[in-house]
Amino acid sequence: SSGINAEWPLRPGQFSGDLAMGGTIYSVPKAKTISTKKKHPVLIKNLQNKIGEIVREEKIYERLPHGKKKVSFMLCADSQSTLEILEQMLDIETDEVIVSVFSSSVKFLTADQIKLAEAIDAQIVLFNVQPLEFGTTATVHHSNIIYDLASEINAAIDNALPPNIERTITGKGIIAEIHGTKKKRVAGVNKLSGKFSLGMNFAVTRSGFEVWSGALASLRYVKSPILETTSNMSECGVSFAKHSVPDLVAGDVIESYFNERAERVLLSSKFYGGNQDQENLGNFRTSDYQ
Fold it and tell me: What does residue 254 show for φ and ψ, rounded to 5 degrees?
């Protein structure tokens, strides 16, 4: 099916677009522009009454590669040229996500367009226009400054994806000596840099490959137990919890680290406050609707 391209409002009973699903054709309202740049088969809740009301339970679907997420948006802006900027901003496809601009409208959205956004789980983007006149369960992003809107949309797409976890290394050393048994192993660490803290995560790498990660049972310096190393310590001793003892080899690298969620930067940097194209975007800073 080629999707829907049409104009609002649609008269009762009028059919538009190419939508044949399971042998049944439903009346579908036409938006001013319904973009199908990312084409996909659709199965929409039945839209009926004078310009269509959603009654079918099925939503729009599309087959995506395993692990890839689709995030859809419905746009509304003060002019066609602004819509083109927003569509350019949302022209995103990575290994993790494909962003779809389902519909674009100038000045306002009708109640039925808003219902359609809810039916397909599309987020609504309003730029330099009045707030919605109708309540909605859809996520709404509303701003008069393009850079604020870009940041908000980038965060919304990132939040729709699995957490992007980055590891920050806080300390590093070389395994020099290994003592004990498989049930209780102690290692001497030298060439220590950064800081080891007992409550942190630790990992052992060999030839660049991680061979173990877990927690330490204790930290020692000159046979005395410590909670963390200090900048004047170039060596220390470490012991491992009984349930998590690595198979160590002299020369292995041991690192302490913590994990934190890092936001993906999915939108072009020109839509952020750092490197603005003032000629094209500078006039988007103020609103006619203050």
Answer: -115, 135
